[in-house]
Amino acid sequence: MSVQTVQEKHPSALEPGVLTMNVLLSFFGAIIGLQIITSLGVTPSTAIIGVLISLIVSRIPIGAFMKFKDMHRQNLVQTAISSATFGAANSLLLPIAIPYLLGHAELVWPMLMGAVLGMSIDMCMLYWLFDSKAFPGKAAWPAGIAAAEAIKAGNKGGKQAMLLMWGIGAGIVGSFFKIPMSALGITMIANMWAMLMFAIGLLLRGYSKMFFGIDLNALYMPHGFMIGAGLVAAFQILMVFLEKKGKKAVEDDVEPYQYTRSDNAVEHSIIRGFVLYILSAILLSFVAGLYTGMSLPYLCLWILYAAVACILAEFIIGLSAMHSGWFPAFATSLIFLIIGILLGFPPVALAILVGFISSGGPAFADGGFDFRTGWILRGFGKDPAFEMEGRREQFISAFVGFGVSAITVALTHDMYFSQSLFPPVANVFVATINAGIDPGIVKNLLLWAIPGALLQFFGGSARQMGIMMATGLLIVSPIAGLTVVAGLLVRLIIIKTKGEEAMIPVTVMAAGCIAGDALYGFFNSLVRVSLKK
């Protein structure tokens, strides 16, 4: 795939024109995120919307607007609006709704502060970890590919643009008929073993009750499976950086690649992130007054557990997003909430805990998609200095989006809560806290953690088979499982009959399918919200 010739200096996220565009679109994205998560319980991807708006603006024959013909400026715009949308809805409004629904409205502002910290630390860790052995820039990050292809096609036109448009059309039409076209597109891009495990998980969850009379969710199989796979995945990530320099990973022997983040830098980043989480958890516990309801040893345990859970959650969510484009943020937070209940933390401490954990994962996953877009546009990491310069500007754009989302949520959350408009997931968290945990659940969690851990261990860190199967088990969408299986069969047939090179145009169309699905979901959500009103 061709990319624009690398320029000497990357556009700045703080250019007046770019900054103005980012602030305006971030506010637009934040409001969209808040409206849709409180009405429908989901958060739409607005990255493609940012791309389209910047492409339209670049056609206006005025100097300031024509600067947006530069695809790197377009990338900064899509980064900001996407960050604002997920930041406002998933990372901020959801956490502050939890203590409010639990009957502790006085904790909304402390929780908002904690959520801003959690969201910010997660984005920093993604910035420090992206394009390392743990989270390579060359990994799938499917939504990032879709945005990159849309930007390239919009600027260059030609055959690639036509392929992308065909893909977008197919994505829209398929989505209209309830076919998860993003799943089909992702299957053409992502690791095949990872997607196979994802499909198996989806199909087991979708059809186990119909064919075998077994409700896997009631047995807590998905949760236990993810606990086991997640713990092993975290161990595998750490082991990558503890390897001796002479022991190269198999992938590196086959396909040499110079990562922009060294192993030493990543080790320091994980330590730095852990320290930041510890400090934030200490601050949050005092601002929220948790010290009044727990003994000092228990408070220390809560702080340590909160920091560890945040890092494990971001690894699980990040790995799922990197390989499949789907990230089970809600389910992952629920897992750590259940463990928190088992540890005996009081209800208020649990509400603050799950809000803090929930604030980070979506920021990590969405940031990975955005950085992948930039990585492609900047030449696939071939110019490390330019890659790092551009990534830094994207990082700044993301924080512009976060800043706008924080202000928007601070100013508007009362309006939503006064009308009993809450993210539905917040009600699930509160119901779980109030219900407590049956001792039988512990047995099921431990039982199913074993196969999850074994599959993740034997599948290896490159395939993430345990994480991907657990992700599928946590999602109720059997049609997506069937779609992934169909996509894998088509992909195998193409490779066997025409070779790997035949997948290049298919990949462009696949990116279009993902973009078309996102566009349909975005506008369909707006229509449904309007009809509700």
List the helices and strands and how they pair.
Blueprint: H1 16-39, H2 47-58, H3 63-66, H4 71-101, H5 108-129, H6 142-156, H7 158-176, H8 181-187, H9 192-212, H10 221-242, H11 250-254, H12 263-287, H13 296-324, H14 329-342, H15 347-358, H16 361-377, H17 384-418, H18 424-435, H19 439-463, H20 465-473, H21 478-498, H22 503-532
Helix pairs in contact: 1-4, 1-17, 1-22, 2-4, 2-6, 4-5, 4-6, 4-15, 4-16, 4-17, 4-18, 5-12, 5-15, 5-16, 5-17, 6-7, 6-16, 6-22, 7-22, 8-21, 8-22, 9-20, 9-21, 10-13, 10-14, 10-19, 10-20, 12-13, 13-14, 13-15, 13-16, 14-15, 14-18, 15-18, 16-17, 19-20
- The average pLDDT score comes to 86
Largest sheet: none
Tell me how many strands there are: 0
Computed Rg? 22 Å
What is the H/E order?
HHHHHHHHHHHHHHHHHHHHHH
Classification by helices and strands? mainly alpha
Distance N terminus to C terminus? 45 Å
Question: Which residues sit in consecutive blocks of at least 5 with pLDDT less than 50?
Answer: 1-6, 244-254
Outline type: globular
Helix content: over 70%
Q: What is the count of helical runs? A: 22
How much beta, percentage-wise? under 5%
Could you describe the 3D structure shown?
The protein has 533 residues and is an all-alpha fold. The chain has 22 helices and no strands. Helix 10 packs across helix 19 and helix 15 packs antiparallel against helix 18. The radius of gyration is 22 Å and the shape is globular. The N terminus is likely disordered.
Jot down its keywords.
533 residues, 77% helix, disordered N terminus
